[in-house]
Amino acid sequence: MLPQTKLDTLLARHATLEAELMGQVEAATYVKLTRELAELSPFYGVPHNDFALARYFEARMIEKHLELLERRGLVEENGSGSYRLA
């Protein structure tokens, strides 16, 4: 299992890279940043018995998809933290 401080550092760097890639970047910078982002992904170089990072990214991915579906009016939160079709 990754120590919490290392996990926090990885997550902070991942968020920084995502933010940088959302802006206007040159092609060479884009390649460099996406390479680094791939190396920080939860499945690149992480031992199979260390799922803390993978669980975090999975939860984050689900949250992002639900937000997108909610913005598009396809689902709505029912007030208890779960969602239903709109």
Q: How does this structure look, described?
A:
The protein has 86 residues and is mainly alpha-helical. It has one domain. The chain has helices at residues 4-22, 27-40, 52-71; strands at residues 75-77, 83-85. Strands 1-2 form a two-stranded antiparallel sheet. The longest helix is centred in the last third of the chain and has 20 residues, at 52-71. It is flat and about 40 Å long. The termini are far apart.
List strands and helices in order, with pairings.
Blueprint: H1 4-22, H2 27-40, H3 52-71, E1 75-77, E2 83-85
Antiparallel strand pairs: 1-2
Helix pairs in contact: 1-2
Number of helices: 3
Helix-strand sequence:
HHHEE
Helix fraction, binned, reads 55-70%
Number of domains as seen in the coordinates: 1
Number of strands: 2
Percent of residues in beta strands? 5-15%
* Class by SSE composition: mainly alpha
Q: What is the subunit arrangement here?
A: single chain
Biggest sheet: strand arrangement: 1-2
Q: Distance between the terminal alpha carbons, to the nearest Å?
A: 39 Å
Shape: flat
Rounded mean pLDDT score: 81
Rg over CA atoms, rounded to whole Å, is 16 Å
Taking the sheet with the most strands, its summary is: 2 strands, antiparallel
Low-confidence stretches: none
